[in-house]
Design brief:
Blueprint (H helix, E strand, L loop, with lengths): L8 H52 L1
Amino acid sequence: MAIAPITGMLRKRFWLDISTGLGLGLSAGAAFWYGYELPFRARQEAFYLKLEQQKLAAAQQ
């Protein structure tokens, strides 16, 4: 009642595993970058631009 050894599993599904992993990883990375990081940076830049404009307006008065 011995269990048969698992052989050749990596070789048989190697390209499927690699392409699936890369595809999911790149998709998750793109979703994070375009869904979270870029909007966050845009809000941050808008905040600092507004702050700088307020400083310049206060300095001119």
